[in-house]
Design brief:
Helix content: over 70%
Structural class: mainly alpha
Oligomer: single chain
Number of strands: 0
Order of helices and strands: HH
Largest sheet: none
Number of helices: 2
Amino acid sequence: MGRGYQIVTALLFLGAAVTDTFDGYLARRQGLETTLGKFLDPLADKLLIVTALIALIPTRDIRPGWSS
């Protein structure tokens, strides 16, 4: 597992983050916010981040972006 795995993981994370942002934007714009949605959205955001980090574990290359 190498660089390709990291790129695929990053693209999946980016896609999920963009669709989550777009979904929230549409819900607020169209007035479709619900109490359940306000509870579940932050939970889903945390799950997205944890899942991305777990997906990077096999590469043994989880480190800050500013380090080389």
